[in-house]
């Protein structure tokens, strides 16, 4: 689905992402791992056109030249949901569909479908974000990201701000949703346990560079260097 060719990001002369070439297959689950400042969130933002970059990003073989034209094909969820506080949960979910001129009947049918998928009811959707729990806000954010039926779902540490019980419950629900929808998923996390849980391919980053990639079990059994071994050991000890 994605093909990155020498994608490079700098801010004020500081390199945030070294020239990176990467392929992400349709239907693949890819987990971006690494410490803070490793470049994983920068790479994710490049995949949705929210970070300026040099190089080429292809989507289904075609170079992306106008991100506004393709962004509706991409769902994006950030830490704590990023919901608009002045809109109800339902208002947040339907905002993009209204902007694109969907008919009311189509919007309502899609909201019902997604509410059932994430386990929210009408009363919860009528609340404002401040009236929802952390887990409920993330479920609303998932509904918003999925509203337009995207081809790929991009998630930036969606579980990190949640308490352990909620995190475990929502992680299980997300994994079930990914399996049911069969869509391309790219997730940023610093948690090795989350990478193991969601499976697929893991990419470990450091200083804006990909250090090693492959199944988590492969990284653990054959670390590419001392940094990989230390990172995995530290995460396993937590």
Automatic annotation (TrEMBL):
InterPro entries: AAA+_ATPase (IPR003593), ABC_SmlMolc_Importer (IPR050093), ABC_transporter-like_ATP-bd (IPR003439), P-loop_NTPase (IPR027417). Residues 2-232 form the ABC transporter domain. It comes from the Bacteria. Keywords: ATP-binding, Nucleotide-binding, Transport. The keyword Nucleotide-binding applies. GO terms for molecular function: ATP binding; ATP hydrolysis activity. SMART domains: AAA. SUPFAM superfamilies: P-loop containing nucleoside triphosphate hydrolases. The keyword Secreted does not apply. PANTHER family: SPERMIDINE/PUTRESCINE IMPORT ATP-BINDING PROTEIN POTA, SPERMIDINE_PUTRESCINE IMPORT ATP-BINDING PROTEIN POTA. This is Osmoprotectant transport system ATP-binding protein. It comes from Novosphingobium chloroacetimidivorans.
